[in-house]
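To: structure desk
From: M.T.
Subject: fold request, one chain
Message: Could you run this one when you get a chance? Sequence is below, nothing fancy, just the single chain.
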Amino acid sequence: MKKKLIISIAVIIIAIIAICQISAGKSKNADYDIAKVEKRDMVQTVEASGTVNPVQSVDIGSQVSGKISKLYVDYNSKVKKGQLLAEIDPSLFQASVDKARADLNNAKANYAKVLAQATYKKSNYERYARLYQKHYVSKDEVESAYSNYIASQSELSAMQANIKQAQANLDTAETNMFYTKITSPVDGVVVSRAVDEGQTVASSFQTPELFVVAQDLTQMQIEVSVSEADIGKIKEGQAAEYTLDGYPDDVFKGVVSQIRISPTTVSNVTTYTVIVDVKNDDDILKPGMNANVTIITMNEKDALCVPNFALKYVPKNVTEKFKEQGIWVLKSRKPERIEIKTGLKDGDFTQIISDDIQEGTEVLMPIKSDKKKNAGGPPRMF
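Reply: Done. C-alpha cells follow.
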C-alpha cells in the first residue's frame, strides 16, 4: 500500500512538470522566454526647454534725448493706454518751440512787408502801362516798372518759402516737446524699467528701451528651443506639458501654437523656436521663468505592444538575414516568424502592426541573463 502511494505521488509530480512545460510552450533547453502581446497606451514625446514670456509686450523708448525729470511708474505698475510713464526735462525743448514760433512770426512779418511792396510795384507798373499807351512815359520807364514788379513777385515767393520753413521748424520743435512726455501705447503691466529719475537718455539711430509693458499676463507663452532632429515631429495644435523650477511637483498644460521657420545656429547646433501657449489665470507664471517642456507628438490608445526584447530574438538555428522587421511566435510548439511593422516606442515596449497578431498572442524573446545562469538546474516549483 505504501509503495503504491509513493508511485502515485511520483506520477503526479511528473505529470505536473509535464503540464507546466507544455503550458509554457517550450522545452527544458529552449533558448527563449515567452511574453504575451498586450494593449497599452503609447505616447511619443519631444522634450526641450524654454522661457516663459508674455504673448504680447511693447518696448517703450524715447524719441528725444534729455534728462528724466519725473518718473511715474515702477515694476508691476498697471497702466492704461495713454497714461504718462515719465517726463524728460522740457526746458530746452520749450526754448526751441519759443524760438521757432518767433522765427515764424518774423517770417510772416517780412512776408507782409514784401507783399505790400509787391502790391505797390504791381500798381505802379499798371499805371506806367496806361501812361505809355497815351505816350506820357517812355518805353524804358514802363520796362523798368515791369522789372521791379517781377522782382517783387520773386521776393514774395521767397518770403512764402521762409514761412513754410519756419512753420516746419515750429512743428518739429512742438513734436519734440510732445515726445518729452513718455506714455504707454497699450493697457498692461510694466514688466521692465530701464531708467531712473535724473538719468540722461540718448536717442540716436536706435530708440533706447525705457519700459516694457506686457498687455495681458493671464495669457503667456513659452518659447521652446527644439533641435532640428525633432522639429519634423512638431505640429501646431499638439498638446504639451511643462514643469517649472519653482514648482517642481506641479505639471501644467499648454498647446503648440506656432513653429518658427527661422533657425538659430550656435556651435554648429541648429534649433528652431516653437511657441507653446499657456494660461496664467493663477498668476503663477512670471516672465523669464525657465520651463521644461514635453510636447506630445503622437498618442495611441490600446496599441498592440510587445516587450522591446522580443524584436531582438532570433532562434539559434536560424542564420537567414531578414529584410523586413519581424517577431517570433509559437505555433504548434515551434517558433515561427511573422513580419510586422513597428509604431511608437518607449523604454520597455514597442507598438506592432500586423493582421496576424492579436492581443494575447505569445511571442518569443531572449532569455534574460539572470535566468541563463540557472538554466542547467532543476525546474523550480512554486
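Reply (cont.): The radius of gyration is 45 Å. Let me know if you need anything else for the meeting.
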